[in-house]
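Async update (no meeting this week)

Hi team, since we skipped the sync, here's where things stand on the single-chain job. The sequence we agreed to prioritize is pasted below, unchanged from the tracker. I ran it this morning and attached the output directly underneath so nobody has to dig for it. Comments welcome in thread, and please keep replies under the output.
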Amino acid sequence: MKINNERDKDFGTMAVADFVRRKGITMTSISQNTGISYDKIRRSFNSNRPLTADELLLVCSYLEVDPMIFRKKRSVS
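Output:
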């Protein structure tokens, strides 16, 4: 899949951040349970850096969710 712009690139990270906020899960608990530094999570969830694929998988494993729920839905023409 070709990434056309920065918004598309960060869509998964923003979807994870929204999910975490809705569930009331803290960035501290994610950091402690995934081994990802709090600073990396904070920067990712505040749109300053995308989660890496490995980070996304670690977070999804901790959240006990399928990473595919965070993919961008394509509109049908």
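Quick observations from my side:
The longest helix spans residues 11-23.
The radius of gyration is 12 Å.
Reply here if anything looks off.
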